[in-house]
Amino acid sequence: MKTETDALSKSEDVLISASEDGEITRWNASDGRCQAVNPNGFYGIPRLLKVFSQFSDKHIFCCGQSNEITILNATTLEVVRVWGGHSNWVTCMDFYDPDTDRLRLITLTIDGRLDIWDFDALKHIVYKDQSVPNRPLLLKNTTSFDAAFNLIGNDSIPHMCMILTSKNVMFLALNNTEFVPQFVIPSEEGTSWAGGSFFGNDRFVIWTWNGDIFNYTLNPPESKEYDTPITTDHNLYYSATLDHSYRFNDKNTSFPCPLFTTVVSNMDASELTAVTISNHPDRSGYAVFSLHSKPSNSDEGNPEIYQIDSTFQDIWPLKHKSDSIYGNITATAPVNTNHLAIGYEGGTICVVPISMALLHLSEISTHLQERDDVRVFENAHPSAITCLIVPNHHISNQQYMLSGGKDGTVKIWNLINGRYVASCAVHSMPVKTFIEPAEQKDMRVKGCIVSIAKDNSVALISIDSMTCLFIFPGYSFPLTTIQWRTAEDYLIMGYSDNSVFVWQMQTAHLDRILTGKTATDVLADDRWPTNTINSILASKSVTSASKQTVSVRSIVSNMQALQTSETFAQVFTFNIRRLVHDIYTRVSLLSQNNEQDDSMHPILQASMSASSFDAVVPDILTFRPDKDDPLDVKEDQMANNHSNSEMKEQIRDKRMELVTAVMSVILSWNISEAFEKLCMDTLDIKQDINKNISYGLKGANGNLSILAPLKSERCSWMISPSMTATRLLSIALLAKAVTYIAGQESRSSELISGYAMSLPLIIGESYCFPSLSLLSKYWQDPSARSLFSGAVTGLSKEEIVSLIDYWEAFLPTSSSPENSGPQMMSRASIVLGIMGCDQPQTLSPRVRKSTALSLTILLSDADLDESRHTAQPDGEQTLSTGAMARTLSSMELLSQGFHVWETYINAAEVLRTLFMYATETQPMMALVSRGAKTAIFQISIANMPLVISTLTFDTMNAKSFDDRLRCLKIIGSFIRKESILLYSHIQSVAEAVVKTLDPNVPHMREVMLQAATSILHDLVKTYPSVDFSISSQKLAVGTLEGASVIYDVRTATRSLVLEGHVGPVSVLAFSPDAKLIATCSLSDQSVRVWQTSLSLFNMLTSSITHGLSTNSNTSNSTSASKKLRDTNPSGSLKASKTFSFALPDNNLEPIDIMRQVRFEWTSSKCVKLCIRDLVMSFNV
């Protein structure tokens, strides 16, 4: 299929596949990356996937061995409708009905029943045509060997279709909702039909399972005479003429096998090309050839012979290069966090660092000299090693490895000292696999390993006692499940024939054998720990691997006929982000000489932005550095208890070997001289490229796609935007570790940007620019952000417009948001949000508005995703991981580009939403709370008056006490973390806090008292222009206008306004008896002392002064000081004493005033003013 994309080509080819377990998968055709997976896309065995582009190219119809058809969304693979109501296995096709003048659907069951349906593509509703309720069956003598399996329409002749069965191809014409048979083409003896297709209005091709292809011409309809008594039929009938046939005959194969054929055409169907694929063990490959429209006279009647002309060996030449001493690799297993165990056909086992295995897998024996971190067990078994495991659970402190051999024995080895420990001859056939029991609580099972042999016999081996506890005999069907009912003293074993064996653990005898529904119910009981063996779903499970820095998988070729298998490749999957985090942690701990527990991850500012990019990588949310690998430390150092720092440094150096190996594999050389020189100087990297290494991508559900070997490693930059973006991101992350170690971390973004911008110039026109969609997923990482901005900068104006138009359609505010899932909506908002923050000129006002509103929707719309909230055990709800990532992204983008978005959004409501998130107390919401606080501080830098006005208004006027408490918490965060931002707004904040203690509002004072008292305490402690008298319960606050306001906390009202300074009040303090208050303004360089209570004379003077000032006709009637007087019922006072002083250096910044200026009352008559080291005393 072709789908839209943000790439320059505007579209990409995708492949949709279905497997026998009903899993539907979507793959990128350029790089093979798995884009989406639906493990339950079809309930049955799927056989056909169809897209009816005339209906909707956004839906996929899946048919197969089921009486239901599933309709899936082509982008997300979500099942939007299960189309039932069919009597048997069913397939379908679309056609144009001229009678109703609309597109409709036809279904065909395997017994030949045809029905007509209508499909509403918007509502996903299917309606059955009831005009002919009981249509006759077309295949009256249907057997299991001749059942209909496909129905194919003709786009050029809408009423024409073909029905394929294994023995016949039947052609029908639709006439007034009736299906009229036209002609039948039977299969030849010994063959069966596999598929067919129409091309234009006069051509069709059909083919068989053994590769025979028949090219027919469809003749125009004509009247047809019958020898039967039925002579009233006046219909015109089609016929067909065989033009040419093609026979498969490959002399290079020893026996026949099924062939898979398809025929494709150009746009006008004038040229046809056949593709036949053979999966023959001897000669696996394909043939591609053109089909002639008309045969030449010399070839008339004679089939054309073809054979496999290209083998997969030609595409990917597998070089079976075995080790010169140990032979071929037969088994591998990860060891700790930095080593790999390799078993060979000669019986030797080597445990080597992953970096060595990555670079020298086929020549390990030549690189073992003088290495202290390798273990070699020569002739561990008399024949090939078949499986290996290093247990994660056992009681002892030692570390052991178990090996299984072709001889059926299981041996135990000590990895620390490299010695043999024990042997168990438990099987008569080769050991097939090891598993660790899912049950780890029962002491009989804890620390054990289950060994399974080729004859399906099972042994339970204890690592701690070095003995075999149980041996269970084999069975003719493969073992699929082990259920541990240790509390009931039972061990349940399920087999592929649906039988269940119940073993009694105490006596080790077979208790009973269950079959049928009883067996199914027993295995379905999820109360017990269960191990699933050889399950397709189990092999695809990547939960454990996703939290490992490195995982290794073997690609095994199975020969079903001979029941043999061969390991021909090893796949190393690196979690680059975890690897870099681990290096950061180890290097930072060493540089700080910190002996703290390694399980705690230090906050690394260089690898995080404001809200942490980890939000979009769920496994990093709980990141812990990998455990130390004991094999990285020399054995004599461990025995002699060398210092912890020496051991950590040695482990760090071994990890750097892994970074060096990975960097040497993924880096293209001769691109950027500065960056490459830094890598070579820091890591000692060699430029020799290992030609046996291929690149790959890890996609949805852990599916891997691996590129075939390329002529040049630079060709990998020409594959796809996703491949380029993934490789650039990996290089960028590793570059951060390199620059950090080299002490040039500040140059990290500059170096990687230079490398990325040089690539198009060196690679040429075929260079695939990185996928902005993929880069935006990790946009909070500075390196990914610089790569994103660099990629946008390299686009032309037309390409930028095209990019914006593409993503705008997926915004939540678009005209059809129902066509986009939450993932695409959030991705579109993030992509355009980044562009709005970094390059706002690229977005038109209309797009800016849509993006701004979309970001607010991501922030607060709980209906965007049904799974946005997940229930917790305590009954509370919290955001799901996906919703959490979207929320954090919207927070950061809204705050970073607030000056761009402010015009288009309700900023106050956005702030209130951030206030709500910032005060969340649930542990699962800690990351969101931290991100919200950071966003509030960021917005405060852009528009502090807005933040203060919203905070103070809600603190005083919010209807809910909880909302007022929330505002007080935010004020407290400002005071403790960003106190300088509040410096200019202390008076309005203090007044809002005091108002929450109003005794006239029922119950408010009781609810708010503790929080308000804590805030007032922090204000007094942080700002010298705020003071509180405990004895009088009064709060004094200095303002920037030169006034000082005294509040009576008992009544939550203003008591006095003290005016006299002509500059901001820098510091004030009550006297010990609270009868006086001293204020100072560094601007007018004066200290004033005031009485805090009004006498009768002062009250009269205050009233006269207040009246005169009210009646004065000045132009400054709206000044802040006048507002203070107007809102103060008690009036203002004159200073009882005024002192002037001279300050040599009067250029103190607010932060200096907060830290270095204070009053100290030595007695009720003497006050000291301390400014830095200067102390002045004033007698009052």
Structure commentary:
This protein is α+β, with helices and mostly antiparallel strands. Helix content is 28%, strand content 30%. It has 29 helices and 60 strands. Strands 17-18-19-20-24 form a 5-stranded mixed sheet, with no helix packed on it. A 5-stranded antiparallel sheet has the order 41-40-39-38-42. Strands 49-50-51-52-56 form a 5-stranded mixed sheet. A hairpin with a 5-residue loop joins strand 47 and strand 48. The longest helix is centred in the middle third of the chain and has 23 residues, at 644-666. The radius of gyration is 39 Å and the shape is globular. It starts with a strand and ends with a strand. The relative contact order is 0.04.
